[in-house]
Write a structure and sequence with these properties.
Elements: E1 5-9, H1 16-29, E2 36-40, H2 46-53, E3 58-62, H3 79-84, E4 89-92, H4 95-100, H5 105-118, E5 121-126, H6 130-134, H7 138-153, E6 162-165, H8 179-194, H9 198-203, E7 206-209, H10 217-221, E8 228-231, H11 238-245
Parallel strand pairs: 1-2, 1-8, 2-3, 3-4, 4-5, 5-6, 6-7, 7-8
Helix pairs in contact: 1-2, 1-11, 5-7, 7-8
The structure holds 1,3-dihydroxyacetonephosphate.
Length: 248
């Protein structure tokens, strides 16, 4: 039985005031939650969330990292800086980073390696665009994204990786993949892992992301190969987020 994991990705949404209310709200509901819960917050709020969540069951993550350890990289943030604030997780290869900031499969694979080297657990994101799905290329795209990372870090490293399947057409659109669509691709991803190592395929968490909300979370997480969610919009309201956290 794999542990259900629910991770919030706040993206570029936060203020000191909203962070306070959101984290306090989540913490209030945490005693009833059996899933592992992570919030991936914008860099400036790592410290605030670290302080608020001390001694709680809430885990902290960042949303990206630089591949270098330190030096002349203006505006960038290293893995060690993220760890310095008690974060254990980092989102890597989100479709917004791939499409808006030109992150190639190779850069994403390098970031996964750097995260692992520093002791952070990558939430490694993959997923096809609408055009790719409509032209029947979902599996080839997902396989390409997966294999770039498997080739770079090796299959054993997946013991420390969480995969998030996020169909791009479902992100922030209110259009969720049906449980059948999501399960089909999750099973395909697990099959790719199994081609390399059957045990690792069984133990690797594969989360679904893309308009997951309190109304659809339970049905999605009930699917055999869906081990939780990576939540955008619905992670910004403590009630909605907690509802999803309890769906597992
Ligand atoms: P939404 O839940 O807002 O669709 O975002 C999903 C996502 O991109 C999480 O990383």
């Amino acid at each position: 039985m794999r542990q259900i994991i629910v991770a919030g990705n706040w993206k570029m949404n936060a203020s000191k005031e909203t962070v306070n209310a959101l984290i306090m709200g989540i913490l209030e509901g945490m005693p009833d939650v059996k899933s592992e819960v992570i919030v991936c917050v914008p860099y400036p709020y790592l410290s605030q969330v670290e302080a608020l969540a001390t001694h709680s069951q809430l885990h902290l993550g960042a949303q990206d990292l630089n591949i270098n350890t330190s030096g002349a990289f203006t505006g960038e943030v290293s893995a060690d800086m993220i760890k310095d604030f008690g974060a254990e997780y980092v989102v890597v290869g989100h479709s917004e980073r791939r499409s808006l900031y030109g992150e190639s499969d190779e850069i994403v694979a390098e970031k996964v390696q750097v995260a692992l080297d520093s002791g952070l657990t990558p939430l490694f994101c993959i997923g096809e665009s609408l055009g790719e799905r409509e032209s029947n290329n979902t599996q080839s795209v997902v396989a390409r994204q997966m294999n770039a990372v498997i080739d770079r870090v090796g299959i054993e490293a997946f013991k420390g990786i969480i995969i998030a399947y996020e169909p791009v057409w479902a992100i922030g659109t209110g259009v969720t993949a049906t449980p059948q669509q999501a399960q089909e691709t999750h099973a395909f991803i697990r099959g790719l892992l199994a081609e390399n190592d059957a045990d690792i395929a069984q133990s690797t968490p594969i989360l679904y992301g893309g308009s997951m909300n309190p109304a659809n979370a339970e049905e999605l997480i009930a699917c055999a190969d869906i081990d939780g969610g990576l939540i955008g919009g619905a992670s910004l309201k403590s009630d909605d987020f907690l509802h999803i956290c309890k769906a597992g």
